[in-house]
Amino acid sequence: MTNPSTGQTDGGDIALGLDTFGDVTNDAEGKPLSHGQTIRHLVEEGVLADRAGLDHFAIGEHHTDSMPLSAADVVLAAIASRTSHIRLGSAVTVISSDDPVRVFQRYATLDAVSGGRAEVILGRGSSTESFPIFGYDLSDYEELFEEKVSLFAELLQEKPVTWSGNTRASLDGLSIYPHSESGSIPTWIGVGGSPQSVIRTARYGFSLMLAIIGGETARFAPFSQLFQQALEKFGQPRRPVGVHAPGHVAATDEQAVEEFLPAFEATIRSVSKQRGFRTPTRESLMRDVGPGGALHIGSPETVARKITATLKDLNATRFDLKYGMNGMSHGALMTNIELFGTKVAPLVREMMGS
User: Fold this and answer.
1) Quick check: 129 and 157 in contact, CB under 8 A?
2) CA distance 162 to 194
3) What angle do CA 238, 242, 246 make, to 5 degrees?
4) Pick from 160, 159, 155: nearest CA to 122
5) CB within 8 Å of 233: residues ≥ 6 apart
6) Is the pLDDT reported for residue 1 higher than 50?
7) I want to staple 94 with a disulfide (CB 3.0 to 4.6 A). Which of 125, 150, 211, 353 is the partner?
8) What sections of the chain are H helices per DSSP?
9) CA distance 109 to 103
């Protein structure tokens, strides 16, 4: 049974789901599909995730030609109308360049449409293309996130809100509607490597999502420990720790690498040039495919073993596979979803002893 305050299954059970950035897929001839067709395919993928028995399906906000998912909540509402069990949320919502009131209202509306299955993962925005679009200065990056998270925390109480800050208009005892089904929308904060972000998450009593895209997953174990210590210090109840990491499942290890790694490598190389970090090599990426690395790629058995190790290393109870990359085929993604739900998830639950 799902805990309505956290969106996590009760009793410490493992929750397994999928995250996507809505990357544009290619047709059978290798040509990019339209944004419209990519989004329609994404709805089908969310419906399949529900049928395959997965716990979560989340869409990350982006505003680019290759990732045109600027209104994730609209797509999630379409998925909600055709599903009945799976929880639906963002991965992540860039709260810094959005209005917290509108974010709350949109996901409270999604909660109503889905019968209480909505959740939110908030993030500062490692991809910052939304800032100039909505007129925000990157020099205000930290202040925008801190203030807007603080307002969102107030909104989650679903009581009249009094709040003031520098980044938006003040609220003076105003009530914000609609209210959610359970009285509070489960909220997580995505953290990519900052102890300060971990402590902030604990201070607000949100759940922690560790976003791992490369390197060894075990290096995030201190963040999981810090989070639980900080929750105790702030007098907050225990909250779950989740892991978001890239991956792909196919019939064999070789097929999974062949389908996923070239697309992932091309994307990472492009991003590294934009952001100025070291360009990865094929050798370094293959190390991440191996034991202890961040890429969960392979056959169902291989991926299940690696997810189990990741969850144990990080003392986490939720794993979201970030699937799909620009240029992959919709068919490969659908097979990945089917295998992840029907093969990987049962194996992980068995290995974890839940």
Assistant:
1) no
2) 29
3) 170
4) 155
5) 202
6) no
7) 125
8) 35-51, 72-80, 100-114, 130-133, 141-155, 195-204, 221-233, 253-275, 282-289, 300-314, 330-339, 345-352
9) 10
The pLDDT-based confidence of 267 (bands split at 50, 70, 90) is confident
Position 328, amino acid:
M
Do strands 318-322 and 56-59 pair parallel, antiparallel, or not at all (unpaired)? unpaired
Is the C-alpha dihedral spanning 97, 100, 103, 106 positive or negative?
Answer: negative
Q: Which CATH number fits domain 10-352: 3.30.70.790, 3.40.50.720, 1.25.40.10, 3.20.20.30?
A: 3.20.20.30
Instruction: Say how far apart CA 261 and CA 242 lie, in whole Å.
Output: 24
Question: CA–CA separation, 110 vs 248, rounded Å?
Answer: 28
294 contacts 280 by C-beta, under 8 angstroms:
no
The C-alpha atoms of residue 75 and residue 82 are separated, in whole angstroms, by 11
pTM of the predicted protein model: 0.94
Residue 10 confidence (pLDDT) above 50: no
The Cα–Cα gap between 85 and 43 comes to 15
Mean pLDDT across 158-170? 97
For residue 172, what are its two tokens?
A: 């003076």
Average per-residue pLDDT for the chain: 94
State the average pLDDT over residues 30-49: 97
Q: How confident is the model at residue 2 (pLDDT cuts 50, 70, 90)?
A: low
